[in-house]
From TrEMBL:
Protein name: Malate dehydrogenase
Keyword vocabulary terms for this entry: NAD, Oxidoreductase, Tricarboxylic acid cycle
UniProt-annotated catalytic positions: H187
Domain annotation Lactate/malate dehydrogenase N-terminal: ranges: 6-152
Organism: Rhynchophorus ferrugineus
Family from the record: Belongs to the LDH/MDH superfamily. MDH type 2 family.
Domain Lactate/malate dehydrogenase C-terminal: 156-328
Length: 332
């Protein structure tokens, strides 16, 4: 029997965590037979709500959930964890742009970087979900110098899943028949959802997504903006931001990182940029990656069209601006 894995979820009393905790505890992320000890971090006023979440986890009667540690103390929450889902932050409300959140949220990620540095395992894998996710991940990594910087990632998997779902619906195939859609850049409305390298299996035949869709205007004028604005559309309809789908995406991201991507398939993750594809260095930029043995690698050699180049530059520039603003907020 494997040793229990300690996994922290921050914002554990919030709405994304409400779906995510069940997915993690029932084995969707680390494998169905991996014992898990869940560390749940939230702020002091949420401890009563968190108590209810703890009761529900017990009542789920999950065989591989070996312990639950609810706390408002980062020293307890991050102690000896091997995986961290950093969800806790102020969520975006209707009419708010992600930039509005930056000032409030980057400070949280500085504190959590320091706590990870002090208390977590040195090989901890960190997934930042709380917005602005890319820049929060960058700040968090800067304040955890004893943990490799490549262990800090940001979530763009929800955008990837949304993009995959749009193409599957357009072509009329099940979702698993669409692969290798890419999200480039920032998890914001400047992200570039790119179907040029995606494949779709139709009637047993693998086609490129543009061939399968048979409508290049749809890709440019419907697909791209629909994916870019999907978060806002969900808020407008639900009056709350995406939660169930965000939790599913977080578990997909962490599972692929721990357990590896399938041969021939890549996924999108916000990772520390090395300047691949002309992206700015030292920002957390979403790239297509493959994963193996717990490590990610950026997929190289994809052709970038002139219009894609422009889109990559726009989102890269936004990330550079966010980095500047975040540093100014922290140093103020
Ligand atoms: P909720 O408001 O339901 O939950 C957030 C929780 O975080 C609350 O319980 C709050 O008390 C807690 N929290 C606040 N500060 C904290 C701190 N310093 N330490 C620990 N916990 C703290 O928001 P929810 O809908 O769960 O969304 C969480 C975050 O995910 C938001 O920042 C949201 O913008 C972001 N999202 C990111 C997505 C992505 O694709 N990267 C998509 C979904 C979502 O919008």
């Amino acid at each position: 029997m494997a040793e229990p894995l300690r996994v922290v979820v921050t914002g554990a009393a919030g709405q994304i965590a409400y779906s995510l905790l069940y997915m993690v505890a029932k084995g969707d992320v680390f494998g169905p037979e991996q014992p898990i000890i869940l560390h749940l971090l939230d702020i002091p006023v949420m401890m009563g709500v968190l108590e209810g979440v703890v009761m529900e986890l017990a009542d789920c009667a999950l065989p591989f959930l070996r312990g639950v540690v609810p706390t408002d103390d980062p020293a307890v929450a991050f102690k000896d964890v091997s995986a961290a889902f950093l969800v806790g932050a102020m969520p975006r409300r209707e009419g708010m742009e992600r930039k509005d959140l930056l000032g409030a949220n980057v400070k949280i990620f500085k504190v959590q970087g320091e706590a990870l540095d002090k208390y977590a395992k040195k090989d901890v894998k960190v997934l930042v979900v709380g917005n602005p996710a890319n820049t929060n991940a960058l700040i968090c990594s800067r304040y955890a110098p004893s943990i490799p910087r490549e262990n800090f990632t940001a979530m763009t998997r929800l955008d990837q899943n949304r993009a995959q779902a749009q193409i599957a619906a357009k072509v009329g195939v099940p979702i698993q028949q669409v692969s290798n859609v890419i999200i480039w850049g920032n998890h914001s409305s400047t992200q570039f959802p790119d179907a040029a390298h995606a494949s779709v299996t139709v009637n047993g035949q693998t086609l490129s997504a543009p061939e399968a869709v048979k409508d290049s205007a749809w890709l440019d004028t419907v697909f791209v903006p629909t994916v870019q604005k999907r978060g806002a559309a969900v808020i407008a309809a639900r009056k709350m931001s995406s939660a169930m789908s965000a939790a599913k995406a977080a578990s997909d991201h962490m599972r692929d990182w721990f357990l590896g991507t399938a041969p021939g398939r890549f996924v999108s993750m916000g990772v520390l940029s090395d300047g691949s594809y002309g992206a700015p260095k030292d920002v957390v930029f979403s790239f297509p990656v493959t994963t193996k043995n717990g490590k990610w690698e950026i997929v190289q050699g994809l052709t970038i069209s002139d219009s894609a180049r422009k889109s990559l530059d726009v989102t890269g520039k936004e990330l550079e601006e966010e980095r500047k603003e975040a540093i100014a907020v922290i140093e103020a």
